[in-house]
Amino acid sequence: MIIAVDFDGTLHTGKYPNIGEVRPGAVEYMQKLKQEGHYLILWTCREGDHLTEAINWLKEFDIPFDRVNDHEPKNKAQYGGSTRKVFADVYIDDRQIGGLPSWEEIYKYILHLVWDGETGFCW
Hints:
Layout: E1 2-5, H1 26-35, E2 39-42, H2 48-60, E3 67-68, H3 73-79, E4 90-92, H4 103-112, E5 114-115, E6 121-122
Parallel strand pairs: 1-2, 1-4, 2-3
Antiparallel strand pairs: 5-6
């Protein structure tokens, strides 16, 4: 599954441009998702030095990611080109309606997603 994960407010508690503390469970569950074979895209509005700071912070805390603001290569090849909106099966963002659930709840939600073969993933 391709999972796009926001940075500010989602993986840490700070507010752009500052980087806060690691959000409880973020390291553990991001590592679990990667170990289980999910493709993780860092999905952020950060750029330049602020993006470099974010990437270095992720590496410092051993939070895995496969790409930054870019499509999974097979997906890009299948559909051609590269749109501004990164394709993912799931988007994790603190700005979602209802706010950000705990990382444990996010992980459990992803575990229960089922591919129905026709319309994509469903609960």
